[in-house]
């Protein structure tokens, strides 16, 4: 659905990373973890296109306005990378944005009995918080979080507050273990033989590494992809990725916006 | 005053209003059904169709530019068989005219596809794509040479009794010459413009942004060029012209009508505002009401120069 949303708060949580909370219609409370939103930053032609953001959180809370009771809110976590996110970072309480949500196919929550392993790289943690919040209701959840440096490690406390065991690693060792988050995660999988499902979101090299680990350890795995999009609803075909059957002779392109953004890792072609 | 008449007639089809959705920006209609009342727009023009499914170009395929966007999708589409099986059933539920945009690699393929589309009752008319800048075959080759354009349009004309619209490329020296060629081949109408060939460069990587290197520019940035070409073509040919290029508002659409367009197509605007076509038709109606104009047809080509 398309709606006008009012910014409730927009805080810089780490240099260049912002967390925005905004109002949403009650129907949004039914969004699936992994779904995304398209935000029109301004009612202008620059920036022209909407920007896609994963749903960081959605829920119902007491309205900040006395007497209004409980209201649905929506949160996104974003990194300032271009003029759209730059403009968004200047938004304050009371400003408005135009939102289309929820879009795309979310995560499959799987079997409650098994352990859930979440892997996030940098801003790739954005859709994993709402996923963790949903999963902890039934399953044991561990979260492996990686970034280049300590500034890229966001919202650890929020995950821990959910009761999620959190493991941090950075490329430069400024926070948590030094090295790749995927190595720490693989060690955990090999050392703990219980049944697991992997959920990952982050930069493509990280997702490739996760997919290889999933393959090697025969662990079910879902990945959430990021893509440059124009429409967000499967019309422009700008955001496609190669499906597992893809070859020059048998094209198999999947729309990140409509078929994804969440895919079972074995549905995609990784080379 | 009674409600103004927004209907227009092109090639014997009556459209409830002059606002259509441009090919490639509206999927096969169904994608937008939750966001726009499909019964409120003039026509649905579907994604460019070929005989066999087409994969399209490698990614990245799109890039935003100032006031516009570049795309190099490369005519990815499901092919005629899947179109009939999976897309037509939905289109059957809509009373709005459906115009199928299509292309081929050869004149024979254009004719074959036109013949197959002719047999589909849900297809109201066809739009011949001879103007996609992003593929080597099936488009621009036929859209930049008046003789080739003539032969394609003629072949399609002979293969179908449905209304035939030829969609023109702006990437030519003289668009009027192309318009004449298509009109001589008995196209019922012309639509223009398709995208302008452009490119974007990533200075950090010193590489083109798009995998295809170049792409088609659309959006508000192209509107002045489109308006000029519509104006030139509309005064040069006797058949109706459909204006396309950066239309974001009712006012934009009216500019095209004044320049001589009998209808317009909304493209890039659908991406940022999925209800754009419906909104633009509403804004046109408001303009007519506020200015005491009873019939939108009064505005076609009413530009005073």
TrEMBL record, chain A:
Pathway: Pyrimidine metabolism; UMP biosynthesis via de novo pathway; orotate from (S)-dihydroorotate (NAD(+) route): step 1/1. Keywords: 2Fe-2S, Electron transport, FAD, Flavoprotein, Iron, Iron-sulfur, Metal-binding, Pyrimidine biosynthesis, Transport. Pfam families: DHODB_Fe-S_bind, NAD_binding_1. The keyword Cell wall biogenesis/degradation does not apply. InterPro entries: Cyt_c3_hydrogenase_gsu, Dihydroorotate_DH_ele_sf, Dihydroorotate_DH_Fe-S-bd, Dihydroorotate_DHASE_ETsu, FAD-bd_FR_type, FNR_nucleotide-bd, OxRdtase_FAD/NAD-bd, PyrK_electron_transfer. Binds 1 [2Fe-2S] cluster per subunit. Binds 1 FAD per subunit. The keyword Transport applies. [2Fe-2S] cluster binds at residues 231, 236, 239, 257. Residues 1-109 form the FAD-binding FR-type domain. FAD binds at residues 84-85. Its cofactor is [2Fe-2S] cluster; FAD. GO terms for biological process: 'de novo' UMP biosynthetic process. GO terms for molecular function: 2 iron, 2 sulfur cluster binding; electron transfer activity; flavin adenine dinucleotide binding; metal ion binding; oxidoreductase activity. Heterotetramer of 2 PyrK and 2 PyrD type B subunits. Responsible for channeling the electrons from the oxidation of dihydroorotate from the FMN redox center in the PyrD type B subunit to the ultimate electron acceptor NAD(+). Belongs to the PyrK family. PANTHER family: DIHYDROOROTATE DEHYDROGENASE B (NAD(+)), ELECTRON TRANSFER SUBUNIT, DIHYDROOROTATE DEHYDROGENASE B (NAD(+)), ELECTRON TRANSFER SUBUNIT-RELATED. This is Dihydroorotate dehydrogenase B (NAD(+)), electron transfer subunit. It comes from Geobacter pickeringii. The gene is pyrK.
Automatic annotation (TrEMBL), chain B:
It catalyses: (S)-dihydroorotate + NAD(+) = orotate + NADH + H(+); (S)-dihydroorotate + A = orotate + AH2. The active site is at 132 (nucleophile). Its EC number is 1.3.-.-. Its cofactor is FMN. One of its GO terms (cellular component) is cytoplasm. It is found in: Cytoplasm. The keyword Flavoprotein applies. Residues 6-287 form the Dihydroorotate dehydrogenase catalytic domain. One of its GO terms (biological process) is 'de novo' pyrimidine nucleobase biosynthetic process. It holds the Pfam family DHO_dh. Keywords: Cytoplasm, Flavoprotein, FMN, NAD, Oxidoreductase, Pyrimidine biosynthesis. InterPro entries: Aldolase_TIM, DHO_dehydrogenase, DHOD_1B, Dihydroorotate_DH_1, Dihydroorotate_DH_1_2, Dihydroorotate_DH_cat, Dihydroorotate_DH_CS, Dihydroorotate_DH_I. GO terms for molecular function: dihydroorotate dehydrogenase (NAD+) activity. Binds 1 FMN per subunit. Pathway: Pyrimidine metabolism; UMP biosynthesis via de novo pathway; orotate from (S)-dihydroorotate (NAD(+) route): step 1/1. Substrate binds at residues 47, 71-75, 129, 194-195. It is an enzyme of class 1 (oxidoreductase). FMN binds at residues 23, 47-48, 101, 129, 167, 193, 219, 245-246, 267-268. It comes from the Bacteria. Belongs to the dihydroorotate dehydrogenase family. Type 1 subfamily. Heterotetramer of 2 PyrK and 2 PyrD type B subunits. HAMAP family: DHO_dh_type1. Catalyzes the conversion of dihydroorotate to orotate. This is Dihydroorotate dehydrogenase.
